[in-house]
Specification:
This protein has 460 residues and is of the alpha+beta class. The strands form six sheets. It has a five-stranded mixed β-sheet, sandwiched between helices. A three-stranded antiparallel β-sheet has the order 1-8-2, with helices on both faces. About 27% of the residues have low confidence.
Length: 460
């Protein structure tokens, strides 16, 4: 799904004037029951989540540091070695302020878009950018480590709150989903994240203020350093704190099976009820099995589900060894949620409204609409999957899931599973709060207010 942050690329993030730029559209789907959980880059999640939402899991954190990616003609250099006046691209006020403070001879310009877009702007023949600053974690996840020219140490350039971590958000009272997500939790990462988000929440900052952190977790000690800057980097207010915590023993993911099978073996043993009276479920082979493994019960909504099952159970005389492919050739993992990329937004469209019929995976099965007497009604087609965007207007109020208003077990939005001690979460949260208050006493709020006023003035 695309979000406002993905769609509005010609305006810098602080100037858009909206919170939850990369999360609101996803949370609408979650709130309306369209999805059961959503995955975010944690640094995109505001410290205050919408009512009824919770971060059910934070995965093990990638390296949180920033990285410098250079234009080919400057390959091998570092920020210190770039010529005076070199242009560095970033959409982050945090990075901008630190770069202006440490490298006053460099010019910082805004650059927006996903990784592909930013790298394309950097690599363009007439590119104005000598380099761009990106989160190292994103480059690593995409397998583009080779593009990194310099890893920026937090002793010079501190990183964003939550950077490098993935968060899974769900409804805070969805016990089944929360239980499932518990196996993904990295407790070491959670401790650092709670302290960082508590720090940012107390300051009241976001993408509209230059705020950064650096956390380190030892066997019995959690350390956090935080800072706030003016937009030009001339003013810096920083401090650090630490607290003692009980030695952390992270839960290991365990998956019980009836035969105590290895998890990977159990995962691959895919069986579904064929709908017959037989008590033995059918084993699906070939691509059909792969689709079921990827999509689970969702595949039962496929209009071709029964044909897959019939082929796999031997009704075609092949003793259950059918390798029948999906007749509409849907790639495994095909995303068909949200607005259809091939047809206009309406579920029913005229033929001449089709955007790219040759590329639509459902083009061969779009059926003409019939009335109650079986008469063809015009030349309209209807997508058999009834693709729709999950918005408040598209869902009946009676179908909306019930949301909880209880936030007693949430720590800056992170859900505390009962297997983890509450005192640990409270200590991490207090650490971030105390550090933020230290910065407030040094004048951090005044510096942030000036920055935000300058941004508003620039917008006008």
């Amino acid at each position: 799904m695309t979000t406002m942050g993905d769609r509005v690329l010609n305006v810098s993030l602080p100037k858009i004037g909206e919170k939850s730029l990369f999360t609101r559209d996803l949370e609408d789907a979650l709130r309306n029951g369209g999805v059961d959980f959503v995955v975010h880059s944690l640094k995109d999640l505001p410290t205050a989540l919408p009512e009824g939402m919770a971060i059910g899991a934070v995965l093990e954190r990638e390296d949180a540091r920033d990285a410098l990616v250079l234009n080919e003609k400057f390959k091998g250099k570092t920020l210190d070695q770039l010529p005076k006046g070199s242009v560095i691209g970033t959409s982050s006020l945090r990075r901008t302020a630190q770069l202006r403070r440490l490298y006053p001879d460099l010019v910082v310009n805004d650059v927006r878009g996903n990784l592909n877009t930013r790298l394309a702007k950097l690599d363009a023949e007439n590119s104005k950018y000598s380099g761009i600053i990106l989160a190292q974690a994103g480059l690593v996840r995409m397998g583009w480590e080779s593009r990194i020219s310099q890893v920026l140490e937090p002793s010079n350039i501190m990183y964003a709150v939550g950077q490098g971590a993935l968060a899974v958000e769900c409804r805070s009272n969805d016990e089944d989903v929360l239980e499932m997500l518990n196996s993904l939790v990295c407790l070491e990462t959670v401790c650092r994240i709670i302290a960082e988000r508590s720090f940012l929440k107390t300051l009241g900052g976001g993408c509209s203020a230059p705020v950064a952190v650096h956390t380190e977790l030892g066997s019995e000690c959690l350390k956090i350093k935080g800072a706030v800057w003016s937009l030009d980097g001339a003013t810096q207010i920083e401090d650090n704190r630490q607290c003692s915590i009980e030695p952390i023993k992270n839960k290991k993911m365990t998956t019980a099976t009836s035969n105590n099978e290895d998890y990977e073996v159990a995962r691959k043993r895919i069986r579904l009820d064929s709908g017959s009276s037989s008590s033995t479920p059918a084993t699906i082979s070939g691509l059909s099995k792969e689709l079921i493994e990827k999509h689970g019960d969702l595949l039962k909504k496929c209009p071709f589900y029964n044909s897959h099952i019939n082929g796999a159970t031997g009704n075609n005389g092949d003793n259950g060894n059918s390798n029948e492919e999906c007749p509409i050739k849907i790639p495994v993992g095909q995303d068909v949620m949200g607005k259809c990329p091939f047809f206009d937004a309406d579920s029913e469209v005229k033929d001449d409204a089709v955007k790219e019929p040759s590329k639509c995976p459902f083009s061969s099965i779009h059926k003409q609409i019939e009335d109650s007497n079986g008469n063809i009604q015009g030349n309209k087609r209807k997508c058999p999957f009834n693709i729709q965007e999950y918005s408040a207007d598209s869902v009946d109020d009676n179908d909306l899931p019930t949301l909880s208003t209880d936030c007693s077990n949430l720590f800056c939005g992170l859900y505390r599973h009962t297997c983890y001690p509450q005192a640990l979460f409270e200590s991490c949260e207090k650490l971030g709060t105390d550090l933020a208050n230290d910065l407030v006493n040094k004048g951090a709020l005044e510096v942030m207010a000036v920055a935000q006023n300058l941004i508003r003035k620039d917008i006008k």
